[in-house]
Amino acid sequence: MTTARSPAGKPPHRLKRLSVLGVVAAASGCPRSGLALRSLPPVKGGSARSGVCGVPLHALRTGVEIPLLDLIDRTSEDGGDDERRSGADAAASEQAPPRFVVPLPSSDLPDQLATPFLYGMQMDTPLHKTILEEAISMAEAAAIESPSLPLSALPRPFYGHLVWKDAESPSLVGAIGCTAEILVNAPTAELLGGGIPGIGGAIEDEMARLEKAFSESPGGEDPAGAPPSERKDNDDNLTPASNTLLCRGGWRFVVREVVRSIPFPVAIVDEIGDDADEGDSDMFSAVGGFENDDENDDENDDDDGLGGMETPELIHQTMRNVQALLSQRLEDAAQKTKLGPLEKSILEAQGGGKETLRLAAIEMAHAEEMSAVWQVFQSSLVDDIEPHQRREAVAIMAAELADLSNAVRREILLTRDSEERLRIVLGELREVVGMARARKLASSITDESDESEKDLKVGKPQLPPWARQIRKGTRIEYFWNEEWEWCPGVVVDDPVTIGDEMLLTIRFDDGEEHKLPLSGDDKLRWRPQQG
User: Fold this and answer.
1) Are 275 and 291 in contact (CB under 8 A)?
2) What is the pTM of this model?
């Protein structure tokens, strides 16, 4: 199996990352005073266009002054740390979720489709905090200058997240990025501890409700409903200096002029759109419901056909893969919450059980929210929208729901050909869906091997005993996906142990070399070499 952009024999392996979006999704019911998502007002003098779900699209924005967050040279693809690392630190960084998420544009989407485009990020560096404060101050100053504007039309705080600049030029003119609207900018302890009226309390109440729904058992009382001051959760994020940003993706821009560069760049930017191909006028049928397409989805493994696909087929295949991915996530999340009274009691006795249930509740709420958004999005596709808008909307929504990496997000933002963007997203989706199916198949193989040896499974999965014997030179097999199945290889470097996980550098027998994690959650995909 090959992807359209990878010369390797196997698609590149992606490390699963847990997004802080789960917490944001659980808190999406906050009062409008805190997390209000409003449609952008038309640009003065601009003409409105028809948009998704009947929401008007507006003339491209021009001459907007915003502060810029330039992390292009300081962040890796998925590591997110500001400094280069080596050895075990570098390995740990590879597996960590990104510290900063590259936003994707959502300003033309209605509020009910905005949840996937909400991002939670830690902004602890003084410079980053200053950039956010500058964006808020600029919006406040603009609002004071226009006191007669209605509330929905008041300027809102935006900052620009750069994704590309000319490495050969010292100037940022011509740099490209995506804006992000600041919804909440506050100390993390206040945000999650109820210190912000109408926001923190709502998040805390929602988390308590989710925990209670999945943790009630004879094992003891659940303190989730206790006041924040009485909670005993140990959270490293709740430090006095920690600052949390909740934001929503805005619109793509190009830097036209740099107003100032110190201590951070402030620029005049113009919105950029796609070079639309109006010849594509074919409508397509929205995919309904969440069905299991495993039996009829063999064509999804044919990545070589992406280049020759017409737009309607690209959209259809993208939607089918998104549907398959969300269905699998719903199934996985539901499985984690199916614990009987005995299992819950054991978790309580072991300690840390409440945290396990808490994470399961968040994951389930996140999966349900994303599925609901997808259903609304599908129904909106039958509305009268222009073909190039449809191509862009499907690709951007699919990329966000699939939680694609920052590297792919940059590629999406830099692509002005909407059809090519669909190919990029579809290729990545096939890889993600294929890995999910491989994990499910490996699990079913293990479950069917010997029913008599099944134990009650509670708590965090542990590494298999044989994993501790892995050394440089050890022969091992890894289940890549349904097509490649078990791939033999040799460990070429000493394993790096990070907490309860091992990072193995494997040179497969076909000559490819990959760094792959061996953890309790992923152990079903590993086995000693057979025969």
Assistant:
1) no
2) 0.64
